[in-house]
Design brief:
The protein is built from 22 helices and no strands. It is mostly helical.
């Protein structure tokens, strides 16, 4: 078996490393890149699945491109709906595909590349949306239709990369195809140990059927996993990062940035998240998932507190300036002055915005997305990814819908509820989330089983007679 697993492929080691990199880029350019790209331009489970998903992008681009000629805003609405479907599918499939294809030593870094492509899409969308490029109202159809470019790139590159080895072995039962995919992804190294680990996971899943999304909430064996997914997935969207993006433009304008230059300043916010996504991708296998999550949420709570203080001082300075002018002129109140007595608080608020976005990129932006891949076994992983994606989109919708009312009701204290979410996210991670760094997916499943059943010495023996279909659509 050792001889079979060690063919004379050693001169091709560098080529195999490039295949893993191509796999990451091919999955990302039409995956979470599309989500970040389409999210920002409007403001300024298998590789088969990812290919089919581009149909929505192509149809959306066609609708965008001909919307002005047809004089139909309904085409734009339908196109955005299709792009949303594509982004939702890709955000679920891409981390799962990459997590199943990467070796355990690089699984976190490879899976967190999804966050890099999301941030890269945001930055590219901000750049392309500049008025000098496609941000002019006359060019809006072209701006929206530009999502076709990454879709075409993925259609051209994704067929060149192998299928997930874990899918081929556990779901399809094809050992030869799994071995061929491992050789393409890993190169000329000894694959015996990794294949043995996959066989162990296959044996543990033998006879089980794929979990349905609602079944995840019914099994005690998945209690800690589901709780972690719901709590940390909700915290990612409710931590206030989107608020910082939404508030950035008004703060920049009040800080003295000319209105025509605000669009360039907002590019800096996306660049901050991209920078930290790259840094955390490198650090995740050194520091672990828990450290990045706790550190990210703790820093966001710190900067959010300072941001709130800066807003309070700004409002207090304006009120005091109004009283001083009223006393010096007459008893009749004058309109409030635009300038505060504490102008430096605006610059402090700007610094807090950048610092908070940097902190979000440290951990929550990337680590949260790989929880579904690492905490659930092969039978529950697709359903977990679906629940995680649906949860994040629902929370994002609620935040977007409720933000204007929160701003009106809480005024300069608008960030206080999000501070509580950041604190809760850090505490939950420290108390309940197990570390998964350097462990195989089977080892993680066994550890979580012990945590869910602390009084049992061994796992369950009951097996369902149904066929394995864990990645069915």
């Amino acid at each position: 078996m050792e001889d079979e697993l060690e063919p004379s492929l050693r001169p091709r080691t560098q080529i195999q490393g490039r295949i893993l990199l191509l796999t990451i880029c091919a999955a990302g350019i039409g995956g979470t890149f599309q989500f970040g790209y389409n999210l920002s331009i409007i403001n300024a489970p298998t590789s088969k699945s990812l290919l089919v998903n581009n149909i929505f992008v192509v149809l959306a681009a066609i609708l965008f491109g001909f919307s002005r000629k047809a004089g139909s805003f309904e085409m734009i609405m339908l196109g955005r709906l299709l792009v949303g479907v594509s982004a939702g599918v890709s955000m679920n499939i891409q981390p799962m595909y990459l997590g199943e294809s990467a070796p355990k030593e690089l699984r976190g870094a490879v899976a967190m590349s999804s966050a890099i492509f999301t941030a890269l899409g945001i930055v590219m969308g901000q750049v392309v949306g500049l008025r000098e490029l496609l941000g002019d109202p006359q060019a809006w159809p072209l701006l929206l239709a530009s999502c076709l470019v990454p879709g075409v790139l993925q259609l051209a590159s994704l067929p060149l990369v192998p299928e997930s080895p874990r899918y081929l072995l556990i779901d399809c039962g094809d050992t030869e195809a799994c071995l061929a995919a491992l050789r393409r992804l890993r190169g000329s190294g000894n694959l015996a140990r990794e294949l043995e680990e996959l066989e162990e996971e296959r044996a543990a899943c033998q006879g089980c059927r794929a979990r349905r999304p609602w079944e995840l909430f019914q099994h005690r064996a998945l209690r800690r996993q589901v709780t972690s997914l719901v709590v940390l997935g909700s915290a990612m969207e409710l931590c206030g990062n989107d608020l910082m993006y939404a508030y950035a433009s008004s703060v920049f304008q009040k800080a003295g940035v000319p209105e025509a230059k605000v669009q360039y300043a907002t590019i800096g916010t996306g660049s901050c998240e991209l920078l930290m996504a790259i840094v955390s991708c490198v650090a995740v296998e050194r520091m672990g998932r828990r450290v990045l999550l706790i550190g990210g949420y703790s820093l966001m709570a710190c900067w959010g507190s300072i941001f709130t203080v800066a807003l309070c001082l700004q409002v207090a300075g304006v009120d005091e300036g109004w009283r001083v002018q009223a006393r010096l002129t007459s008893t009749s109140p004058l309109p409030r002055p635009w300038q505060s007595l504490f102008p430096w608080t605006l610059y402090l608020a700007v610094a807090c915005i950048f610092a908070s976005i940097l902190s979000f990129g440290i951990g929550p932006a990337g680590v949260t997305g790989i929880l579904a891949t690492e905490l659930f076994d092969q039978m529950a992983r697709p359903a977990a990814c679906m629940v995680c994606g649906a949860l994040m989109w629902i929370m994002l919708f609620l935040v977007s819908l409720g933000f204007p009312f929160i701003m009106e009701a809480l005024s300069h204290f608008l960030y206080v509820p999000f501070l509580g979410v950041c604190v809760c996210g850090a505490i939950y991670t420290g108390l309940f989330l197990p570390e998964t760094k350097g462990k195989t997916l089977q080892e993680i499943s066994e550890e979580l089983h012990r945590l869910n059943f602390p009084r049992r010495a061994q796992g369950p023996t009951w097996r369902s007679p149904e066929v394995i279909q864990s990645t069915e659509l």
